[in-house]
């Protein structure tokens, strides 16, 4: 897990050194070379050190960092495509260089020459490099840390020069590498090597670094455990997760220091007996999760010494009594979760040293009193969640007096008797969520006197005795009661004794009123969550500084509050975050929130605010984010926020109805202002007079017609967005006073012309977007005085390339977009831009291209001339582009593939032409081609060419007649293939894809009438990760059974003729996380139990059911005969999307609306998310609508903002905790868009 975190996320690290104020002065300031970058400076008497980070700042050329000594330099997420030889000439002494998440495809051979003697750490991850830049690395004598994760590398073989002697950590995951080269055997300093998610099939002993201690080969194509690893004497951590082992036979390792061997997510069905010479194999941590073990036989771990064994997510039903023979006095950790156990195995009961036991998600109904007897005194953590227990197993745990963590969630426990926890004298965490508890009696938890965390969420509580928490009142820090009550009565008397609570979660209940003193007994409270209740008001002084001196985070969103309670948010000296999103607040009165010196984030978005009174917020000196978007403001009165804000204060008032701005008093701290999507048509010259410190101003999608001179006299402004307004012309002084402006977006306006020296005062302007206007020509000196790097002139009315205008920026310009204009010719003078790396000329009126059209573009990497009917001598035309990597010639009227002398070309698009045949001669110079698109051409047979490095091929939409065994022989490294819309295919050999042993991504259709076609045979054995199938039959039943490996991550089923999907269709799919899409079909009804088997065999399922003809959707489709409320939403933890189906707002799909709210809380843990992440989740879930139809109208209803029922369903269902009643009484929802986790709690995909 630690390894994955290091290679699967972007490293954004800045070195902070502890500083003594008397010796070293440390401070962080905007950098002088670019104020959007931040410089961390350390000054002492001898020299200055500096760390620089430019994160998320767009650059097309490397910034000129003119600093004498830089320790660490990070340019992350900038979009840079090339690193020139002189890029780092001014950055002397750089020790750590981070260039992550850019678009780098070319690194100059001498680009690192100036830092060759100092560079120790280099991060090039998440770029577009096709090869290791050996010439760059050769002279890096001190480089010890290298990350090239997520590029397009195919080989590591080459001359590493001096770097091989110093390198200690190397990360090459997520590339297309097929082997570890023999030269790595000479990397004697290399201790950590990561090659995850490549195409490695075997390991040769003579290629392994001799002193490696951490080796990661997760998600490769290894068929068996590599015996060559036995020779690695220093091997400590070994990761082989997600390969294709059918069995496991461990070698006689020479290493005596094995901490971990991870072979999880393979297909291991049996484990071979260790054959060691008079010794045992010592492995501290042995991970066998997610394999295919069905039983643990006697002595299965003979010869093994281990302290931790992971066996979750197998299908283990039987465990022999002697399964753990030899480990009785050794094993400390055992995970048997998500198997098929009906009881605690006797073999487990013999483990005397066991401290951590996980048995969740089995079918255990009863636990004998002596099940934990042997290790009771050692047990620290026990999970029995998601079983079938109907009571606390008191007899079994009575002797577990040192237990710290107990999880009994997701069982069927209906009652807890006083005394059930008398034994739990050391228990600190108790999870009882999602049982069927209705009552807590007096002293329910008596005995658990050290209990710190208690979760009772997702129960059906109707009665809490006043003394139910007596016995834990002094110790309890955290109490979770989300979706816990089947009553609207706030349990104030029961909660009152919990005087030491730090964290109280009460969201998604049915509370309508709360007394002013409800929280007065919680004087140590730091976090309180009352989201999604039915609160119409809160009493005054519900929070007081004298009572709640430590309160830091208050969540009151998605209630029905119409006003902020008086005096409740005054003088809260520790408050950091206040969330009032999604209420019905109309007016922000004076002194609504005041004197909260540590408040950082305040959200009032999605209310009904029409007015902010002066000093509505006051005394908030640390405020960084104020969210007022999606309200009903018609005027922005800056007086209301004049006395708030820290040194970097951002205000979001987008999506209101603002037409006027009252600048009022000075708001000196406001640096970021979002006014997008309002009704502003005029900006007086003094509009921003009171906000002189603005750095970012967003005015997109308003109705601004004229930009008056002096309006933007903002000397600190760096980014100005005027996209999609009504601007027709610009005055010469429209942007006067913007000396620091770097990004200007004027796209989507009605500008017809620009003035001479229009941007002369913008001496730092780097990025200019003028697309979507009506410009026909440009003055010669229009860009004089700027530093343009990126210029977008697309979707205008140019008939000739405005070449003279580029002269002033010929050295700085890197990216030029002239697509969608009317340019009809080019010549040698068209582009006086010798440093250009990207040129887009698509969809113009070009016909004849002279041979010298691109004569001055020797550094060009990407050229797009698609959608022009071209005539040219392509061999001569491209003679001047020796470094070109990407060429787009789609829809150019080509009948044959031209001879292209582009030896460095990686991407070629020849789609939508009239190409009917191919030959090796046409590709004779393209030996390095990696991506070839031939979509919708006239090919009647597969391209008959040999491209040994081709990674992606798209031949969809061609009249190809047959697919034979020879069709793909020329593409041995192919990983991505598109064979959809081949409607003329009449013959398909069942083995035609068999040669594509690295194929991971496939888009294909079915050919039921084709000779020899059988989809399952076609797909079986391929290492597919993502598959899209266009089904041309009416029925999907057995076609894909047993077709996929456990590594499948995305499966999409579509087809305009598909009407029925059998419940057996997906019954054999198993593995880890899967996104299953059934889209754009004619399916009307999904059969019961269709997805139930999937939920049991996958670690996480995401369902996308958009754009079908589904007219009814029962929970039985997912849950079968189970009650979804008793199981929860984790069975589809990734989410569910059903928009575009003819579903009505009626009680038949009422269950889905509650499911959505519960999913946010249960599966997405929204209560622990930051405000920004929570808002993102809410925004997506807020798109959920159902259609209410009456004889007179039809309208969509948004579920999350619905306050009262609009159907025959009972009104009492809304926000109720009574789930049995809710299942048939809530409103329905259609458009549910939910997220898939990529990295739990850290990242997620929006789709």
UniProtKB/TrEMBL annotation:
Signal peptide: none
GO cellular component: extracellular matrix; extracellular space
Keywords, ordered alphabetically: Leucine-rich repeat, Repeat, Signal
LRRCT domain segment(s): 1141-1187
InterPro entries cross-referenced by the UniProt entry: Cys-rich_flank_reg_C, Dev_Immune_Receptor, Leu-rich_rpt, Leu-rich_rpt_typical-subtyp, LRR_dom_sf
Highest taxon above the source species: Eukaryota
PANTHER family the record matches: LEUCINE-RICH REPEAT-CONTAINING G-PROTEIN COUPLED RECEPTOR 6, SLIT RELATED LEUCINE-RICH REPEAT NEURONAL PROTEIN
Protein name as catalogued: Chaoptin-like isoform X2
């Amino acid at each position: 897990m630690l390894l994955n975190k290091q290679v699967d996320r972007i490293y954004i690290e800045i070195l902070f050194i502890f500083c003594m104020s008397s010796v070293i002065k440390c401070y962080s300031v905007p950098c002088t070379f670019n104020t959007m970058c931040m410089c961390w400076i350390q000054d002492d008497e001898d020299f200055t050190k500096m760390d620089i980070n430019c994160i998320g700042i767009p650059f097309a050329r490397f910034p000129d960092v003119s600093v004498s000594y830089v320790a660490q330099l990070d340019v992350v997420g900038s979009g840079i495509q090339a690193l020139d030889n002189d890029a780092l000439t001014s950055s002397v002494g750089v020790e750590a260089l981070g260039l992550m998440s850019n678009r780098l495809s070319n690194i100059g051979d001498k680009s690192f020459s100036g830092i060759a003697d100092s560079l120790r750490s280099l991060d090039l991850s998440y770029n577009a490099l096709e090869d290791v830049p050996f010439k760059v690395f050769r002279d890096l004598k001190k480089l010890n840390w290298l990350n090239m994760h997520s590029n397009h590398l195919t080989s590591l073989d080459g001359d590493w020069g001096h770097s091989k002697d110093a390198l200690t950590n190397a990360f090459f995951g997520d590339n297309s590498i097929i082997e570890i080269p023999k030269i790595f055997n000479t990397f004697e300093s290399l201790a950590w090597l990561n090659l995850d998610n490549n195409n490695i099939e075997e390991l040769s002993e003579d290629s392994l670094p001799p002193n490696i201690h951490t080796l990661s080969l997760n998600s490769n194509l290894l068929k068996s455990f590599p015996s060559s690893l036995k020779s690695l004497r220093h091997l400590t951590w070994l990761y082989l997760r997600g390969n294709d082992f059918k069995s496991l036979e461990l070698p006689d390792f020479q290493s005596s220091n094995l901490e971990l061997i991870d072979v999880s997510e393979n297909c291991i069905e049996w484990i071979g007996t260790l054959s060691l010479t008079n010794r045992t194999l010592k492995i501290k941590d042995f991970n066998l999760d997610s394999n295919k073990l069905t039983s643990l036989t006697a002595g299965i771990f003979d010869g093994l010494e281990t302290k931790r064994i992971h066996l979750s997510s197998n299908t283990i039903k039987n465990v022999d009594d002697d399964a753990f023979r030899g480990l009785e006095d050794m094993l400390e950790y055992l995970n048997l979760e998500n198997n098929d156990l009906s009881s605690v195995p006797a073999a487990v009961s013999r483990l005397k040293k066991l401290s951590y036991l996980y048995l969740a998600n089995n079918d255990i109904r009863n636990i004998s009193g002596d099940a934990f007897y042997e290790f009771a005194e050692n047990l620290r953590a026990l999970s029995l969640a998601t079983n079938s227990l109907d009571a606390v197993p008191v007899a079994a745990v009575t002797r577990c007096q040192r237990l710290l963590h107990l999880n009994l969630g997701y069982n069927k426990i209906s009652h807890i008797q006083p005394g059930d926890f008398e034994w739990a004298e050391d228990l600190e965490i108790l999870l009882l969520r999602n049982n069927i508890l209705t009552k807590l009696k007096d002293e329910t938890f008596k005995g658990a006197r050290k209990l710190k965390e208690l979760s009772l969420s997702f129960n059906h509580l109707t009665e809490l005795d006043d003394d139910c928490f007596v016995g834990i009142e002094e110790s309890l820090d955290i109490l979770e009661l989300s979706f816990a009550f089947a009553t609207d009565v706030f349990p104030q008397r029961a909660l009152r004794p919990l005087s030491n609570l730090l964290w109280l979660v009460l969201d998604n209940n049915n509370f309508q009123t709360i007394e002013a003193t409800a929280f007065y007994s919680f004087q140590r409270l730091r976090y309180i969550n009352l989201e999604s209740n039915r609160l119409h008001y809160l009493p005054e002084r519900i929070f007081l500084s004298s009572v709640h001196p430590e309160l830091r985070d208050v969540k009151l969103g998605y209630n029905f509050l119409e006003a902020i309670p008086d005096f409740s948010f005054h003088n809260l000296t520790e408050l950091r975050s206040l969330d009032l999103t999604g209420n019905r607040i109309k007016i922000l009165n004076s002194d609504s929130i005041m004197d909260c010196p540590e408040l950082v984030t305040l959200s009032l978005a999605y209310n009904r605010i029409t007015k902010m009174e002066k000093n509505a917020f006051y005394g908030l000196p640390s405020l960084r984010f104020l969210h007022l978007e999606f309200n009903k403001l018609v005027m922005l009165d800056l007086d209301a926020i004049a006395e708030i804000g820290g040194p970097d204060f951002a205000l979001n008032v987008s999506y209101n109805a603002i037409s006027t701005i009252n600048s009022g008093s000075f708001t000196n701290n406001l640096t970021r202002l979002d006014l997008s999507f309002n009704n502003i048509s005029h900006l007086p010259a003094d509009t921003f007079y009171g906000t002189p410190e603005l750095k970012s101003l967003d005015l997109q999608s308003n109705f601004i017609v004229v930009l008056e001179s002096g309006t933007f006299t903002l000397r600190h402004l760096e980014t100005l967005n005027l996209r999609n307004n009504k601007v027709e012309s610009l005055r010469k002084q429209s942007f006067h006073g913007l000396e620091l402006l770097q990004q200007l977006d004027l796209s989507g306006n009605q500008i017809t012309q620009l003035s001479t020296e229009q941007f002369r005062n913008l001496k730092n302007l780097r990025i200019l977007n003028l697309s979507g206007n009506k410009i026909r020509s440009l003055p010669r000196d229009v860009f004089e005085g700027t530093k343009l790097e990126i210029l977008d002139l697309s979707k205008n009315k140019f008939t000739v390339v405005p070449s003279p205008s580029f002269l002033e920026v010929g050295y700085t310009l890197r990216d030029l977009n002239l697509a969608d204009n009317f340019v009809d010719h080019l010549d040698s003078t068209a582009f006086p831009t010798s440093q250009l790396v990207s040129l887009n000329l698509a969809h113009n009126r070009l016909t004849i291209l002279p041979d010298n059209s691109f004569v001055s573009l020797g550094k060009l990497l990407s050229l797009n001339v698609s959608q022009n009917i071209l005539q040219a001598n392509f061999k001569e035309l491209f003679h001047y582009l020796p470094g070109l990597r990407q060429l787009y010639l789609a829809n150019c009227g080509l009948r044959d593939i031209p001879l292209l002398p582009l030896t460095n070309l990686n991407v070629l698009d020849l789609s939508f032409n009239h190409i009917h045949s191919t030959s090796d001669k046409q590709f004779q110079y393209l030996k390095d081609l990696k991506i070839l698109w031939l979509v919708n051409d006239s090919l009647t047979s597969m391209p008959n060419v040999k491209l040994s490095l081709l990674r992606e091929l798209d031949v969809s939409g061609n009249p190809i007649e047959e697919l034979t065994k020879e069709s793909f022989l020329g593409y041995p490294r192919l990983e991505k293939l598109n064979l959809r819309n081949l409607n003329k295919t009449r013959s398909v050999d069942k083995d035609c894809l068999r040669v594509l042993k690295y194929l991971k991504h496939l888009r294909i259709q079915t050919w039921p009438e084709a000779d020899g076609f059988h989809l399952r045979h076609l797909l079986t054995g391929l290492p597919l990760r993502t598959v899209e199938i266009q089904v041309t039959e009416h029925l999907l039943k057995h076609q894909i059974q047993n077709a996929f490996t456990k590594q499948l991550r995305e499966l999409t089923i579509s087809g305009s003729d598909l009407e029925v999907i059998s419940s057996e269709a997906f019954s054999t799919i198993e593995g880890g996380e899967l996104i299953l899409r059934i889209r754009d079909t004619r399916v009307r009804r999904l059969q019961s139990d269709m997805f139930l088997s999937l939920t049991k065999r996958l670690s996480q399922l995401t369902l996308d059911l958009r754009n079908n003809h589904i007219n009814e959707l029962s929970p039985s489709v997912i849950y079968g005969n189970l009650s979804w409320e008793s199981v929860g939403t984790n069975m589809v933890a990734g989410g569910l999307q059903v928009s575009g189906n003819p579903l009505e707002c009626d009680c038949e799909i009422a269950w889905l609306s509650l499911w959505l709210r519960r999913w946010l809380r249960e599966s997405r843990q929204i209560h622990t998310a930051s405000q920004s992440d929570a808002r993102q989740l809410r925004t997506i879930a807020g798109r959920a609508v159902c259609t209410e139809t009456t004889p007179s109208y039809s309208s969509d209803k948004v579920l999350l903002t619905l306050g009262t029922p609009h159907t025959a369903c009972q009104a009492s269902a809304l926000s109720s905790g009574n789930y049995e009643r809710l299942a048939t009484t809530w409103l329905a929802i259609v458009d549910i868009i939910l997220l898939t986790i990529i990295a739990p709690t850290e990242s997620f995909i929006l789709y």
